[in-house]
Design goal:
4% strand; mainly alpha; two-stranded antiparallel ribbon; globular; two-stranded antiparallel sheet; 20 helices
Length: 420
């Protein structure tokens, strides 16, 4: 541990390596240095436990409602209503988190969301009127943005340390991809192998437990801003073109998913298409972890790579080969995490002080809006032109994302760990 000026630099013991009979100490990697910071392992454990259900809830609700009520139309309408309610409520929840603190707001908000999930189970099991399903699932819109709160903690711990912050944001993006890759698989298994309500029930339990563990780590919680945050401008005005970028990225994700499902169904995979679809998330997860060990690139460079790699699924689909498509999805996914990590870093830089959770939640809301629009557009394109031609939509959306980037795009510089 050394002190330089006002900065406390923490270095973990290096691992000895023998070279020509001598012991040489090797510097620890960036992730080892990251989790050497006090309290980071504890809040990350709770964060991952609470984040896994984010990939479970929608799939579990669809399978539960369709299985008990025999209507996918009803199941889809209920989940769509929940997504719309989340888009409206989530920024307000995030604003309260910034103003009053994570533990004080996130715990009651989580309890309301969990009660909504439990109410949905009861209403489905008791054959309650359809409107009760909509009301119950809409209550889950109070779900706090656990990923945003975790990123806010890293930003608080690593202020003045761009290199460490870059590694932390890369880890968070990889965690997102991992949870959204494993969550639907776990939900489908529970709903089919146990009982239809098991996915929602287990998801609610994991979410509540993880949130309680996460919020219990008070030493790493960013300070509440209260009245100071209220006097600052809205993050929506400060973020500006970045929200347009996230909307375009949502178009990429939504159109790619629907087109891939349609393409794989046309080739007879149907329910077995899950592993192929998971390759895109796997590529993004691996790339995110690797990107955290490298120097940050400019946002323009990341989106250019995304635009190029998003043409690969279209080229692979044209060959009619499912293995080729799987490889193309894996490669295309590898451009996702670096783009998201770099774009989120811009959100951190432009969001007014004390409004970080709200700023990140607005970015997520823009992505959800883009996913909804991309899914709808891809559905129409598949019906009219077929799934192969529809793979041009993600590539076009990536080019659209490129046009939203401002000409001046600085690259973050490296720094040291600063502990408050």
């Amino acid at each position: 541990m050394t002190v330089t000026g006002s900065t406390l630099v923490i270095t973990a013991p290096a691992a000895p390596v023998r070279t020509a009979g001598r012991a040489v100490r090797r510097a620890p990697g960036p992730y080892r240095r990251l989790f050497a910071l006090p309290g980071t392992r504890a809040f990350t454990a709770g964060n991952l436990l609470a984040r896994l259900p984010m990939g479970m809830f929608a799939v579990s609700a669809v399978m539960m409602i369709a299985g008990q009520r025999g209507s996918y139309a009803l199941a889809g309408a209920v989940t769509a209503t929940g997504m719309a309610a989340t888009a409206l409520v989530a920024p307000w929840t995030a604003r309260l988190v910034d103003r009053h603190g994570q533990a004080r707001i996130a715990v009651p908000a989580t309890l309301i969301a969990v009660l909504g999930s439990l109410s949905l189970i009861v209403c489905v099991r008791t054959q309650a009127p359809a409107w009760t399903l909509f009301a119950s699932y809409a209550a889950t819109a109070t779900t706090p943005n656990i990923g945003g709160m975790s990123r806010a903690r890293w930003t608080h711990l690593l202020r003045g340390a761009p290199a460490g912050h870059h590694t932390a944001m890369s880890f968070e993006q990889a965690a997102d991809e991992l949870c959204y890759m494993l969550g639907p698989v776990l939900a489908a298994f529970l709903c089919t192998a146990v009982f239809p309500e098991a996915g929602t029930l287990v998801g609610a339990g994991l979410f509540l437990t993880g949130m309680l563990v996460f919020t219990a780590q008070r030493a790493t919680e960013p300070p509440a801003t209260r009245a100071a945050a209220a006097r600052r401008g809205s993050p929506a005005r400060a973020l500006g073109p970045l929200l347009a970028l996230f909307l375009a990225l949502g178009l990429v994700f939504g159109s790619m998913e629907v087109t891939s499902i349609a393409y794989l169904a046309a080739h007879g995979l149907g329910a077995a298409s899950g592993p192929v679809l998971a390759l895109q998330a796997a590529g993004s997860c691996a790339a995110g972890l690797l990107y955290g060990t490298l120097r940050a690139r400019s946002l323009r460079a990341c989106v250019c790579a995304l635009a190029v790699l998003m043409t690969l699924p279209w080229a692979a689909a044209a060959t009619g080969s499912v293995p080729a498509l799987g490889l193309a999805l894996l490669l295309a996914g590898m451009a996702t995490a670096p783009t998201m990590v770099t774009a989120m870093s811009r959100v951190h830089a432009r969001t007014p002080e004390g409004r970080l959770n709200e700023g990140m939640t607005l970015a997520v809301t823009a992505i959800l809006g883009g996913i909804a629009a991309g899914s709808a557009t891809a559905g129409l394109a598949v019906d009219h032109f077929g799934p192969t031609t529809s793979y041009l939509l993600p590539a076009t959306a990536a080019l659209l994302a490129l046009t939203t980037i401002q000409h001046k795009d600085p690259v973050p510089q490296s720094g040291t760990y600063r502990v408050p």
